[in-house]
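Recap for those who missed Tuesday's class. We walked through two folding examples back to back. For each one, the amino acid string is listed first and its predicted structure tokens come directly after. Nothing is annotated here on purpose, so try labeling regions yourself before you check the end of the notes.
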Amino acid sequence: MSNASQPKISLLQLVRAAWTPYKRMLPFLQPYWKQFAWAMLCGVSYAGVNGCIPLAAKYVGEHVFKSGATQAELLRAADANQGSHLTSTIILVCALIPITMITRSILSYLNSYYMMWVSLRALSDMRQQLFNHLVSQSLDFFNRSKAGQLISRVMNDTNNAQSALVMIASDVIKAPLSVIVGIAVLVRIDWKFSLTTLVLLPICMIPVLVFGKKIRKAGKAADNEAGIMSVILQESFAGIRMIKGFGREEYQIKLFRKSSEAQFHNSLKIRRSGDIVQPLIESVSALGVSLALLYVYTGQMSAVKFLALLAGLFLLYEPVKRISRIPLQLQRCITSATNIFNLLDIAPSIQDQPSARELIHVQGHIEFQGVSFSYVPDKKAVSNISFSIQSGCRYALVGASGAGKSTILSLLLRFYDPQEGRILFDGKDVLSLTQKSLRNHISLVSQDTFLFHDTIYENIRYGRLDASQSEVEEAAHLAFAHHFILEQPQGYNTIIGDKGCQLSGGQQQRLSIARAILKNAPILLLDEATSALDSESEHMIQSALERLAQNRTTIAIAHRLSTILKSDQIIVMEGGRIVEEGPHLQLLDQSMIYRKLYELQFLSHVPQEALGIS
């Protein structure tokens, strides 16, 4: 398709499209409109006082260097008893300059202070809203997102958007008003001189427009590369054991070097395009000064008047420079704000219904009715699953990897919702219940143990934040963790490092189990809960879990069948379907799949041919 056939977009439409994310950020300033109004008032007052400096300089100069006044006349005036009055007048006139400058400085400080206050409050609110929104997202969102990029959005994009928002809001009024007042004052003093010097002002905007486009393009690339760099950093630190295990330090260093080089070139383009604007403006301004000097020579202007006009010209430089920065600030604001609002516009795939109720007084009866679910189209993780779990009983899910066991636990926790069928808790459809109340009644111990970079005490207390010290220690006792905790340098107050890296895998798992024990929920989900333990630790934990499972509905996933032999019911899964269900001895006698799993673990000495394995 040719370019001629493509729909044309007007300049007005482009401007509106660019300002849409900027407008969406304005509500972040609304709670602090009083402070923002004070900042704007100080900014407007600053512009007025700043523009009046040339008038003050001219007024003072005319009184201090009175035309035709001689020392003799001053002496005669003093002899006529007017000296004291004259001296007082001159002192007051001379004080006008410091008074004006001090007032200007105070207004500048107040403007900057209130703007910074509003800026930091808006940044805090923006980050909090974005973080709240991201944490409320469903699990599938995080499955397809890069953690480093999300970190970059919360840290970098909010900072860029907020700072640009406030700077633009300030400069878009303060700077142009300073220029307008300054030009008006210059015209008031000598309009011919002003026209002679300011005729070059439009030329100063040419480099702003030319290089502004390059700055915007490089700025967008720099922001994108910042997100890539955050991803590399996050993955490198989170996967450091994997990196070192495979000897890929140099590979990660090359990835980071490549990103750093790209960031260098983008930043250099921004600085190069931005910094060249200032010398060009100064060069044009110097030409204006030359024209002004020619005008002074031909017009026989007084030195006082010329100095006042020259001061006014120099005072125009700073606001003009600020105006030249607005396009870059606007682009950074638009790019970062677009990234932020693209995330805020993503609705969680799992949401509570408007009429959702709190789950209370849980008995622990769970029922699956024809449940099917797919992570990707045309490939079902579980298909037409139906079974019932009685309250207070212990159930186990067994089967090969990919059979759908973990998917069932994820559906129970409402990490995902069934695409077909329904799940009932005590006869209530989980879709009719709030997610928070549902999960409050479930304790989870996963094979993917996660511990925070905090103390042992805080990691266990995470299971129930209002727990006391004695309750935390009791949970640790039940998980057979208390003894090794006391052996740590600071006991329960020992900081265990990122993901508990200062503890062994078995110790990490026991802290995770203690956390679940402390929660004391009526439903217990165990996803390979003893996978990281040695035989001795496994025996201790199994005893603790058996005590914990009393009068609770327990569902366990285990590849090590020794941990689930005493389950009331064992559900055998294959290919996302339930193929057998029953207690251990019954399945061992009737189920070929279960018997093969059992023989592989307990009768490993049997020849593979005898087990029917090629």
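Example two. Treat it independently of the first, because the proteins are unrelated.
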Amino acid sequence: MIGTSSSALSRRHDLDALRAFAMLLGVVLHGIMSFVPGIGLIWAVEDSHASPWYGVLLSFIHGWRMPLFFLVSGFFTAMLWRKRGLRELISHRFKRIFIPMLLALFTIIPLTWVVSGYVRSQATTATAGGTADRGGAENAIPTPASEIKIWGDVATADQAAVEKYLARGGDIQLRDPNGATPLHVACFFGRANIAELLLKSNASLIALNNEGKRPDELLLIDWGTTAFIANLFQVPAERINVLKGREAIATLISERTGRKIASLPIDSEDPFRLSSIINLLMYFPLFGHLWFLWFLCWYVCIFALLVKLLQVLPIPRVSPRWILSARRFLWLIPLTAVPQFLMARTPGAFGPDTSVGLLPFPAVFAYYALFFGFGVLYFDADDRDVAVGRGFWWMLTVAALLLFPLGLRLQGSTAEGAGIASSIVQVSYAWMMSFGMIGLFHRHFQAPNSWLRYLSDSAYWLYLAHIPLIIYIQYLVRDLPLLSGIKVSIVFVATTSMLLLSYHFLVRNTWLGVLLNGRRHSPPSSNREERMVVLASQTDGEFN
């Protein structure tokens, strides 16, 4: 499957630049999150001038950024293996990925929790769902925003907001990607006042979620699972209040149906369950925004095992024609669509899920493994002419103007077969954007460049450290009476400026800089052009 490569082992400066661009796009993506209506349920800050259009932009970036990143990571993993061997590959990744990740788990991640807790504790003038941005943005696409927000309103028992949603004709049978209706959520969190409103509006009592459970069956979910889910989504939930609320809901449903409805007794004790341990390992947000480093550790280990296995098994090499020509879409799209279909995305989300726990979600793990694996095969295909990026202009155009709008449209559809069609469109978008960006960057950034090398090296530090700072700056501008575009600019410019300064003076020439990007070598020539070329490749290896 992986044969002897004839690839030139020279550095791909275009892919270095593309990797840095993808990392910095992560800063942009997190910078606009506070401006998405209803985001307060999963993000520490929700701006007073939220607009649904930022949700569209977030989906546009999220749909291809990390798939492309893992593709490039697979390419550089294969390149490093060919250049230095398997032992050096594992040693390199241990130093560049595992150790920085471990250090961040004891510094950056706890700091993120502290900052998030602080800003959540501060009062805000913003409404629960965010105030419409100027220019009528809220009226432009109100449905996605209200559908995102209703789940938070039900979970937090915001009766006024739910009444407003119902008065406007909101879908009482709206389902999240797990198949749950608002009544399912009300029963799970014991929100009796909300359940009463929904029942008066004829919410279905026989609707089944993806696990085949009716709303009343969630009244029996053990407290340990309930508390874990509540903590995961930062929903306030006290045991006594939740269980009393469930008892009240059971009474309401019993009166409505004439049958005895059971709920979890207030004095019940939770039994030990293996499923609860697995859920804890999968859902507890241990890695936060650094989950991709954990995935890379897994993939490198699996790659090493496969290399050893392929040394003893006579598996033929994949023909470059199936990697470089348009034939690649014939197997990449259907293969990737399977894990995409199996994911349980959050309401209104577009693109792949994120897995932040110690135990990766199988579908998410398989999805990104396919991009990483293609990157490995792509290196050995020796694409000197960058055939995968040929015609990048039409791939980017089709992806942005056709596949992305179609994917958003299908994401909210309940029509038969819409889930399969949505998965196919979303993975087609991810692959088209990935190959298009490879072609675009090869066209413009294939030559060595000192400032691009500097940016590429700094991008790793910027992404590692940006979340606590970006959340705090979002909090500082949250209630300012400014256009959201100005606020977004302030957040991004302030965050990147401070992090670049910290990189230049506190990281680049220190042990941390060596840990992240390897040792830097002084340019031997006094000639300016030669010195720039040396500077452009002065570190001993990229982390990914």
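Answers for example two:
Residues 1-8, 125-146, 528-538 have pLDDT under 50 and may be disordered.
Residues 158 and 422 are 32 Å apart (CA to CA).
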